Amino acid sequence: MTWSRKNLEDVETIAPTTSVYLTPERQDIRRTARTFAMEEVLPLADELDPQRGEIPDALLRRLAELGYFGIMIDREHGGLGLGVFEYCLICEELARGWMSVASIIARGNGTGCASPDADRRSELLRRSAAGGWIGGIAFSEPEAGSDLANVECRAERSGGSWVITGTKRWVGHAQRADFLHLLARTREPHEGEGRSDGLELFLVEKPRGSFPDGVSGTPIDKIGYYGLTTWELRFDGLRLPADALQDTGQAEGQGFKDSLRWLGPARVQTAARAVGLARGAVEDAVAYCRQRVQFGHPIGDQQVIRHALADMSAQVEAARQLWMHAAYLVDSGESADVETSQAKLFASEMAEQVTSQALQIFGGNGYTTEYSVERYWRDARLTKIFEGTSEIQRKIVSDALIPEA
């Protein structure tokens, strides 16, 4: 069973209408995103997620029409010219409907636009903002996940070209993408350098719906996060032009550092997505508690249920305030490594707990695909893993508290 807008219109009480961060302009942005998520995204999620279906092209076009692929791209290049805060504000709403839709816009918003040629860079930014330049992120490998400096995929010079050999794992949207954003090793670290030295970022252009010669892929059979097919890719002599090497603004062999530049915003976005998932579970649980009758009364009359909902809503709001504060710091240009990690850690752990409690409130019905709560539960579990596991976030925060010797 799915919930219509009418079912939920009087239970959206854990998404505050006022906040020190929420200017009237931001409230308008959120209102538009919420209406879109509830009326267009959620019905598709309820239909397609049980089928393990992908985000339809028509919905990608709607995201482009709303400007969501260009939230953080300047207006000069057709974007909305907004910041990380607005980006995350929209992502919370989209994740309330379907987390994969909140994720797909991260594959626009200027990703894969760092061409060394200024005109080409401008062209790609415009395409990105318009939803015509959507990528797949090919960073992780079978032996390089949390330890990304362990990347072994090789990029070797061959005349005026680069030749790519190796394996990448966890590449979402790879086949349907317009490009792959590839992290590969061009050389071994020099004496005195770290393990990450010698890594560079490459742009692999490709047609939507297929892989170029020299690339093959196998879908990974996941337990959730449907809507975006995730791939393991094999590079067997893929040949790239010399200008496929991205202009990261770093010295030669320092592409890894540029990849880390995106981790702060990505972690705040994951926190916002986790809040959206948890919020969906709470709102669905409140609606269910009003309709489900046991022992002659709606189960929402039971104090144990009411107190559980109170705790859940408080946890959602606490996580929201953490991501909002972290996003504010990132947009202000301040150092926010600890705050982004705290937000990601707390929100993802919260989302797993809250969605699990919501499923418990549904009882046996929660353990079916007839209700959306099981989707929120499955997807929330992933937020503790991607963009840096909870264990990695704890290391970052604890190292700031007690620096390593």
TrEMBL record:
Superkingdom in the source lineage: Bacteria
Transmembrane segments: none
Span of domain Acyl-CoA dehydrogenase/oxidase C-terminal: 253-401
One Pfam family, short name: Acyl-CoA_dh_M
Stored SUPFAM superfamilies: Acyl-CoA dehydrogenase C-terminal domain-like, Acyl-CoA dehydrogenase NM domain-like
Span of domain Acyl-CoA oxidase/dehydrogenase middle: 137-236
InterPro entries: Acyl-CoA_DH_CS, Acyl-CoA_Oxase/DH_mid-dom, Acyl-CoA_Oxase/DH_mid-dom_sf, AcylCo_DH-like_C, AcylCo_DH/oxidase_C, AcylCoA_DH/ox_N, AcylCoA_DH/ox_N_sf, AcylCoA_DH/oxidase_NM_dom_sf
Keyword Flavoprotein found: yes
Keywords (A to Z) from UniProt: FAD, Flavoprotein, Oxidoreductase
Keyword Amino-acid biosynthesis found: no
Domain Acyl-CoA dehydrogenase/oxidase N-terminal: 23-113
CC cofactor: FAD
Family the UniProt entry places it in: Belongs to the acyl-CoA dehydrogenase family.
Protein name as catalogued: Acyl-CoA dehydrogenase family protein
Organism of derivation: Actinomycetospora endophytica
